[in-house]
């Protein structure tokens, strides 16, 4: 069940409309940073393997097989080690993910400002960011006045003044998007780790119980 929940959360994060709209963008020959998806794929793999290993543990318990329970315990130890390694990697790279996406946005924004054509790739990328995140401009002086002098790039509000007052910088929105998603991944990983620790303890207790009962 825990494996199924983790797999479900990971698949939801993988196909979330906000992240897919942004991370599938391409600026010329440069693809948007997809470091975020590495963590998602690790979660998907852990969830799928946990479901299989869970079945192995259940079958081993029903059959009272020390071999299957020992295999179950070994798989859990390996999974737990992989999860700890992935957690350390995620913690180290959590700020880098948003930073890479912001740099990609800034490059597209510069191209959009200099572009004369409506079909410019940078302009299309920037408009996708703005519409998906409901933001406009980077987190600097140019970004602050963008709604006034380049309102064609910003999401439309009722009036120009309302657009200027209610529009948030895209840097802030990118931080909010990925910090929220990473926070959810972190909670899921902690819940799985706790469940796995209990599973390892209980499988060893059961394995020892079967071994002792077989003596008599």
Task: Name a few traits of the molecule.
216 residues, mainly alpha, Cd81 Antigen, Extracellular Domain, Chain: A, two-stranded antiparallel ribbon, 8 helices, membrane
Protein architecture, described:
This protein is mainly α and 216 residues long. It has a single domain (1-214), classed as Cd81 Antigen, Extracellular Domain, Chain: A. It has 8 helices and 2 strands; from the N terminus they run H-H-E-E-H-H-H-H-H-H. A two-stranded antiparallel sheet has the order 1-2. Helix 1 (2-14) runs antiparallel to helix 8 (170-215) and helix 3 (35-63) packs parallel to helix 8. The model has no long low-confidence stretch (mean pLDDT 78).
Shape estimate: rod-shaped
Element string (H = helix, E = strand)? HHEEHHHHHH
Q: CATH superfamily assignment?
A: Tetraspanin
Which structural class is indicated by helix and strand composition? mainly alpha
CATH topology: Cd81 Antigen, Extracellular Domain, Chain: A
Low-confidence stretches: none
Number of strands: 2
CATH architecture: Orthogonal Bundle
Radius of gyration: 24 Å
Describe the main β-sheet briefly. Answer: 2 strands, antiparallel
- Beta percentage is under 5%
> What top-tier CATH class fits best?
Mainly Alpha
Number of helices: 8
Main location: membrane
Transmembrane segments: 36-62, 68-92, 182-206
Protein name: Tetraspanin
Subcellular location: Basolateral cell membrane; Membrane
């Amino acid at each position: 069940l825990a494996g199924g929940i983790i797999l479900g959360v990971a698949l939801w994060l993988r196909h979330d409309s906000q992240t897919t709209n942004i991370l599938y963008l391409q600026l010329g020959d440069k693809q948007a940073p997809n470091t975020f998806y590495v963590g998602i794929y690790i979660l998907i793999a852990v969830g799928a393997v946990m479901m299989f290993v869970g079945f192995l543990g259940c079958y081993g318990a029903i059959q009272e097989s020390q071999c299957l329970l020992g295999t179950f315990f070994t798989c859990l130890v390996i999974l737990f080690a992989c999860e700890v390694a992935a957690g350390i990697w995620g913690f180290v790279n959590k700020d880098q993910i948003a930073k890479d996406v912001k740099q990609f946005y800034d490059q597209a924004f510069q191209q959009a400002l200099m572009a004369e054509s409506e079909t410019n790739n940078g302009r299309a990328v920037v408009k996708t960011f703005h519409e998906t995140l409901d933001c406009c401009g980077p987190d600097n002086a140019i970004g602050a006045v963008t709604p006034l002098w380049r309102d064609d790039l910003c999401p439309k509000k009722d009036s120009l003044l309302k657009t200027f007052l209610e529009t948030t910088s895209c840097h802030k929105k990118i931080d909010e998007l990925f910090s929220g998603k990473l926070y959810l991944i972190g909670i899921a990983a902690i819940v799985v780790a706790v469940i796995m620790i209990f599973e390892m303890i209980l499988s060893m207790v059961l394995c020892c119980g079967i071994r002792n009962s077989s003596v008599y």
